[in-house]
Amino acid sequence: MNRSEQTEQKQLLPVIGVVAGAGPHQTVLTIVSGTPAVAVPSPTAFSSSPHQLAYQQAQQFRHHQQQQQQQQLQTFWASQMQEIEQMSDFRNHSLPLTRIKKIMKVDEDVRMISAEAPVIFAKACEIFVLELTLCSWIHTEENKRRTLQKNDIVAAISRTEVFDFLVDIIPRDELKEEGLGVTKAAPFL
């Protein structure tokens, strides 16, 4: 095949492009092959029934809601990191250190505990409780309620991979009520 035949064959290959600005249900595919351009409406242009439009709007709302939830969690972790970096007084804690030490000594392998370990463990427990509460509150708001309930905590645990270690603690019937068919979210940290 000589160079002119190759050039002719390249010109006959179809080139596909999308015309921008046509609207969400009027996207036009333009197919160009050696002949004049042919406009083909997108599949969504044919399927604009009220049910499908409502479904698409619901999907967009869910996507927007998920973005807001991700933003809330990112803001939470940013504020926690900033608080830790600025912490100078390690003597004041939300959780009592004596209780933390008792929990640590439950493990038979633990014989001695340094002075710093309960402080760090207390902060880790505090952050854990705050994140679980935030994830539970997000579920409460999804259901348009203003009261955090037990099923919100179950939903937060079942939706978030970070909390998978707690699944064994939740009774099976509550997990079935919540429905584990919900896709799990990615870890937030």
Automatic annotation (TrEMBL):
Any coiled-coil regions, as ranges: none
Main location: nucleus
Pfam families: Histone (PF00125)
Domain Core Histone H2A/H2B/H3, chain residue ranges per copy: 84-157
Keywords: Activator, DNA-binding, Nucleus, Transcription, Transcription regulation
SUPFAM superfamilies: Histone-fold
GO CC terms: nucleus
Origin: domain of life: Eukaryota
Localisation: Nucleus
A GO molecular function held by the record: RNA polymerase II cis-regulatory region sequence-specific DNA binding
Statement: the UniProt record of this protein carries the keyword Transcription: yes
Family, similarity comment: Belongs to the NFYC/HAP5 subunit family.
Protein's name in the database: Nuclear transcription factor Y subunit C-9
Annotated source species: Hibiscus syriacus
Organism lineage string: Eukaryota, Viridiplantae, Streptophyta, Embryophyta, Tracheophyta
